[in-house]
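Hi C.,

You asked whether I'd gotten around to modeling the 83-residue construct. I have! Everything is below, sequence then structure, no commentary in between.
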Amino acid sequence: MNTLSIKLPPELDRQIEIASRREQITKSELVRRAAAAYVARRSSAAPAFVSALDQAGDLAGCFEGGPKDLATDPRFMKDFGQR
């Protein structure tokens, strides 16, 4: 088994100590289990960030007849964000 050294804030170290006593396992085992649970949850979860292009990329460029300079012409931004 490999060794990993980490620095913990005193309060987190205290909480880990209390939890390890409650679970009747070593602090190392508690942290191993927590790390394994975190990695398993993150690898099976959806990506944390999905851009608008990722979600609607198939729609980009599919419209015809609109202004060619919609994103750069200040006239189109005149009332943007106002109700």
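If it helps when you're writing up: The two ends are 61 Å apart (CA to CA).

Thanks,
B.
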